[in-house]
Write a structure and sequence with these properties.
The chain contains no helices and 19 strands. It starts with a strand and ends in a 23-residue tail after the last strand. Helix content is 0%, strand content 46%.
């Protein structure tokens, strides 16, 4: 039960009382490393942006020391290493894998309603919050959107042809979490039916014909010879 060097002595005597001796050296050694038991989930999972508290580990000998860090601000896989050393210098180790994951979809922060003047393509910007970068896409073929959320018409709208557009915008983060928002774009009529792009006013021309009749009366005086 105790590591160390021990001596066993053997003695033998014959009938003439001659005595012989021999010895054996016995080394009690410890070559077994401490056994470490990881407490709690392994692998462990923690949500992006939250706080990670390690559950630790236990050992049969010595004291457990932990090394390694978990960055909960960055999605990825991290390793915590536990070690313990016994009195004979044997070292035992164990590890825990901690996966930082993002399971939360982006949240839209921009309005679902937009208005835009006719005869131009610009609409506005769609925004959403998330702990990771967000990219945007839009349904249909009438609208276009950049990855950064700038929304526009593919073809400049004409109020007299179509005064309202609807579409669905999708916001996706780097972990493939996504959210959707149905948007409506109302077109502003600039100038009425006969639009003048330069002034924003409408003009019109017309011609007309007509006939008329009339009557008249009169008196006259004169002298004669």
């Amino acid at each position: 039960n105790v590591a160390g060097t021990y001596t066993i002595t053997y003695k033998a005597s014959d009938a003439s009382q001659n005595t012989g001796y021999a010895t054996r050296t016995v080394n009690v050694v410890d070559t077994t490393a401490p056994v470490i038991t990881v407490v709690g989930d392994n692998p462990a999972t923690v949500e992006l942006g939250s706080t990670y508290t390690d559950a630790g580990a236990t050992t049969t000998e010595g004291t457990v020391e932990a090394s390694g860090t978990v960055d909960t601000a960055t999605v990825g896989s991290y390793t915590i290493t536990y070690s313990a050393t016994d009195a004979s210098g044997n070292v035992g180790t164990a590890t825990r894998t901690v996966n930082v994951v993002d399971t939360t979809a982006p949240v839209f922060t921009s309005s679902a309603s937009f208005s835009a003047d006719e005869n131009q393509t610009a609409i506005g910007t769609v925004t959403a919050t998330d702990l990771q970068s967000v990219t945007f896409s839009v349904s249909g073929t009438e609208l276009a959107i950049t990855s950064g959320g700038v929304l526009s018409f593919v073809t400049a709208p004409d109020y007299e042809t179509k005064s309202s557009y609807t579409a669905t915008v999708t916001a996706s983060d780097l972990s493939s979490n996504s959210a959707t928002q149905d948007i409506t774009i109302t077109i502003n009529d600039v100038g009425g039916i006969d639009d003048d792009p330069g002034t924003g006013t409408g003009t019109g021309t017309g011609t007309g014909t007509g006939t008329g009749t009339g009557t008249g009366t009169g008196t006259g005086t004169g002298t004669g010879t």
